């Protein structure tokens, strides 16, 4: 069950589902819709997902969500560091 998660595929699948990342979406807070979107992502990430037991599906789903959160947080950290670096470069020298 522990297949290596394809980062680029995961990002593409999530970008295609704004309910998972767009806080301005009216259905962003709808748990049923969100759960269904994550299930779709899991099915597309792993062709064997449908044969898993409920426990295995939950475990795999948590792995996928954890991977997404990790990617998102790393990207936000990168953006913050880059913004900080740009502000340091633009400071006039005395």
Helices and strands in order:
Blueprint (H helix, E strand, L loop, with lengths): L6 H9 L15 H15 L8 H36 L5
Helix pairs in contact: 1-2, 2-3
Give a nutshell description of this structure:
This protein has 94 residues and is mostly helical.
Output the keywords.
94 residues, mainly alpha, 3 helices, globular
Structure description:
It contains three helices and no strands. The protein is mainly α and 94 residues long. The longest helix is centred in the C-terminal third of the chain and has 36 residues. Pfam families: MADF_DNA_bdg (PF10545). This is MADF domain-containing protein.
What is the percentage of strand-forming residues? under 5%
Low-confidence stretches: none
Global geometry: globular
Could you give the distance between the termini? Answer: 59 Å
The structure class reads mainly alpha
- Kindly state the mean pLDDT as a whole number? 89
SSE order, one letter for each helix or strand: HHH
Domain count: 1
* Sheet with the most strands, sense and barrel status: none
Radius of gyration: 18 Å
| DSSP E strands, number | 0
InterPro entries: MADF-dom, TF_Adf1
Domain MADF: 9-94
Protein name: MADF domain-containing protein
């Amino acid at each position: 069950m522990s297949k290596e998660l394809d980062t680029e595929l995961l990002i593409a699948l999530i970008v295609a589902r704004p309910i998972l990342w767009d806080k301005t979406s009216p259905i962003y807070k709808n748990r049923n819709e969100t759960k269904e979107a994550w299930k779709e992502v899991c099915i597309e990430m792993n062709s064997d997902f449908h044969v898993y037991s409920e426990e295995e599906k939950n475990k795999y789903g948590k792995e996928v969500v954890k991977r997404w959160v990790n990617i998102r947080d790393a990207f936000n950290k990168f953006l913050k560091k880059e913004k900080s670096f740009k502000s340091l470069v633009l400071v006039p020298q005395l």
